[in-house]
Sequence to fold (75 residues):
Amino acid sequence: MPEIILSDYFYGDESEEFVFFKIPRQLITNPKFKHVSTDAKLLYGMLLDRMSLSAWNDWYDSDTSAAGGKPPCPC
Fold:
């Protein structure tokens, strides 16, 4: 595996080497979700990422939700 060197600038598609998942702040700050494991919170963020990719590609189910199903809002 090639070594990743952090530099001051990114060139071309180098920025694609760093991928981030968005996790709703409510999952972290709301005491209602304190019992939910960090693995489950990360998985939820990964599912949201997949759903947004489906929406970006215009892949929708028959009920007009993004393909793969829409994760329920944790709020």
The chain has a mean pLDDT of 77.
